[in-house]
Amino acid sequence: MTRCLTDPVGGEYDSHQVYAPGQQVTLPASIGAEVTLDVTDLLKAGQSRK
Predict the structure, then answer these.
(1) Would you give the DSSP letter of residue 4?
(2) What pTM value is reported for the model?
């Protein structure tokens, strides 16, 4: 599982959502572009490489 934290306020985040492998994450429009990411790909990219 992975989390998408949004709406930073004073060193913390006002909102978060938990996503499971196989789901798609659409990042908030506040980043200035429409971006959708595959959670499975995010988790693979975050694994340590041996």
Answers:
(1) E
(2) 0.66
